[in-house]
Amino acid sequence: MRTYIIKRILLMIPTLFGISLVLWLVVTAAPGDPGQKAMGEAQTQRSGNTGESRRIFREQFNLDKPLFWNDYVSLTPQDVLATVRTGNDLTLPGKDRSAANRRMLDWGYYSVPGLVGALDLAGNTRERAGLLFYLQTNAKRTGATRVGRRYTEEEKAENMEIAAESRDIDTRLAIEAERFRDAEMGTPAAVAEMERLVAERAPLWKRWYAERKGRWEWSGAERLRRRLLDTQFAKYWWNLLHFDLGDSHVHREPVLALIFKRIPISLTLSVTSLILAFALSVPLGIWGAVRHRKPDEQAVSTLLFMLYSLPEFFVASMLLRYLGIGHPFKWIPVAGFESSDTFSMTTWGHVKDIAWHSVAPIWCMTYVSLAGLSRYAKSGVLNQIRSDYVRTARSKGLPEWSVIVKHTVRNGIIPIVTLLGTTLPVIVGGSIIVESVFTIPGIGHLIWDSILQRDYNVVIGEALIVAVLTMVGILVSDILYAVVDPRITYQ
């Protein structure tokens, strides 16, 4: 048994690797911009400080990096100038100009040499103004970011240095976004002012770059390292190897901390529902097997089939409609896991308040499992009742209860053991439907909101946790087989 368990655990490693790779590929291929969705604002071309805020946000969560191969290290002034011209061309569709703007912001610090070199290639003042605008945004370094974590002394010192350099750019080298908008309106005074600012700022930027040029003079080994490791794929695996699921784009805190904060709520509902379902379904299944095809058993089976056919969202909505909002009754809370005034309650009062809020969600999570598990239990016991060893036990004169409990049930509940192992991820993952309908802040509700808001780090983190729990649950099921039936061995 020990050898079997070790082999299964070792097999989980490549399995988890494959699952992680598929998850990452699916998420990166999903349409939409998670950064834009999470920030909750429409990004427009060169709109005040919005471009810089968006750039910093995407850098913090590695959304600005290429997927597999970083070709930003080989940007040329011609590449940069062509992209700026696309963003300035008002004859092009808005989506093309927005894509050019997003590409420039994603190039970030890598584009600084190309931006400075393109100042001498620009054909007019408007193009040079666009280059200067991107310079004042992309030349700013992003400091160490530890969402929800403490900064080290080195990180604090580096962040202070970066902040001082950014202030220098804002006060000495930057051009206000309003100047661009006024110049684009075409008034002579605004155009003249822009020409003056460009003529004044361009030499200052060249001098600024000459003093810091060494930052972009990488060796061949450093270029190769950046091409391979400064990518979304490399950052993703680096975090996984350090058991770091990243930070939530929306909640701005580590994914693991966010999930662990919601787990107690989902555990309370799921574990209670699971205990009720198994405690009721196993005796009900045994009773159904003993009373097979009797009128009372057929009536109960019909009721269970009816429960099984009712969707959870429908039952939850009906409970809220008729028992929650006062039409005709107001017996259950309509939302939440606890009342808003629990801080003033005693411990026992708090427990009663949570129980009051949990009755309807637990019922919705239990009835479907109860119907299904009881059918599995009944089928398993029925198959054993018809076996030869059961007839032999009866022929020896053993009491019926002894035949059923000691001989039949032990082998008949093996299908239930299988289902018990696969419920482990469900216990921790919660119920998306029930938690969403009742607005319960558990894991299921978190997953649903993360999908809608494209908070991909949370989606990947929860999916990986469910994958690990699924593999652990299957292993637990295999071990329980040997516990329930000693004839099963793993040699």
Mean pLDDT: 81
Number of separate helices = 23
Query: What structural class do helix, strand and pairing data support?
Result: mainly alpha
Q: What percent of residues adopt helix (DSSP H or I)?
A: over 70%
Distance between the termini: 7 Å
Q: Tell me what portion of residues adopts beta-strand conformation.
A: under 5%
Q: Can you count the beta strands?
A: 0
Unreliable spans are: 41-48
Q: Give the biggest beta sheet.
A: none
Would you list the SSEs in sequence order as H and E?
HHHHHHHHHHHHHHHHHHHHHHH
Could you say which overall geometry the principal axes of the C-alpha atoms support? elongated
Gyration radius from CA atoms, angstroms? 32 Å
Descriptive key words:
71% helix
Description:
With 491 residues, the chain is an all-alpha fold. 71% of the residues lie in helices and 0% in strands. The chain has 23 helices and no strands. Helix 4 crosses helix 7 and helix 22 runs antiparallel to helix 23. The radius of gyration is 32 Å and the shape is elongated. About 2% of the residues have low confidence.
Topology:
Layout: H1 2-29, H2 34-39, H3 50-60, H4 77-88, H5 94-107, H6 112-118, H7 125-138, H8 153-173, H9 177-185, H10 188-211, H11 220-229, H12 232-241, H13 255-290, H14 295-309, H15 312-324, H16 347-385, H17 388-395, H18 400-412, H19 414-422, H20 424-429, H21 432-437, H22 443-452, H23 456-484
